Amino acid sequence: MPSLPPDGTIRDETGSQRLIGYVVDLSAGDGRGRCHLDVDERHLNRHEMLHGGISTTLLDSAMGMTATLAFDPVGLSPVLTVSLATNYIAPAGPGRVTATGEVAGHGRSVCHVSGELRDAEGRLIATATGVFKRVRGR
Predict the structure, then answer these.
(1) Which residues pair with 12 in a beta bridge?
(2) Residue 2 lies inside a defined structural domain of this protein
(3) In terms of C-beta distances under 8 Å and separation of at least 24 residues, what long-range contacts does 41-48 make, across chains too?
(4) Domain contains 3
(5) Structural domain of residue 71, as residue ranges?
(6) What CATH number is attached to the domain comprising 29?
(7) How far apart are CA 36 and CA 20, in angstroms?
(8) How far is CA 4 from CA 27, 68, 73, 119, in A?
(9) Confidence check: pLDDT of 24 > 80
(10) Most exposed among 18, 24, 39, 107, judged by the fewest C-beta atoms under 10 Å?
(11) Domain count, the chain
(12) pTM above 0.85, yes or no
């Protein structure tokens, strides 16, 4: 069975991580998944702001990992996104952004998670809510 790296970060595990360049961070040990991205010109839209689809990808990944941790403290049990709603609050430009998930509630197979995306100064960029389903037997 795979295990997490000693530093609690996951790099280049999936195609989306390699393409976009974000890092999954579980090092805090607080049951919250985090995704960090150092935004550069590749991540900007035509208005030179972080593309909304990338913001949502970061939130989905952080929230999905948070749901995974709710079912499995080691963070290795997969979940699938059932629904995800994103609200864009403020634009972000180049620099680090961090998406963080927080469990709102869960049962045996479904987890409700909220998420925030913030820039390096702590400014709120986007929020999200989602439902994630545990995948058993994989």
Answers:
(1) none
(2) no
(3) 41/94, 44/93, 44/94, 47/91, 48/93
(4) no
(5) 9-134
(6) 3.10.129.10
(7) 11
(8) 10, 13, 11, 26
(9) yes
(10) 107
(11) 1
(12) yes
Q: Characterize 47-79 residue by residue with b for buried, 16 or more Cβ atoms within 10 angstroms of its Cβ, and e for exposed.
A: eebbbeebbbbbbbbbbbbbbbbbbeeebebeb
| Cα distance between residue 130 and residue 128, in whole Å | 7
User: Has residue 4 been placed in a domain?
Assistant: no
Query: Would you say 92 and 36 are in contact if contact means Cβ atoms under 8 Å apart?
Result: no
- CA end-to-end span of the chain, whole Å? 11
* Within-domain flag for 39: yes
Mean pLDDT of 104-131: 97
Contact 99, 35 (CB under 8 A): yes
pLDDT digit string, tens, across residues 32-57: 999 999 999 999 999 999 999 999 99
Distance CA 17, CA 45 (A): 19
pLDDT band for position 1 (cuts 50, 70, 90): very low
Distant-in-sequence, close-in-space partners of 41: CB < 8 Å, separation ≥ 6: 94
pLDDT in tens, 72-87: 887 678 999 999 999 9
Percent of the chain with pLDDT over 70: 95
Mean pLDDT score, 9-15? 88
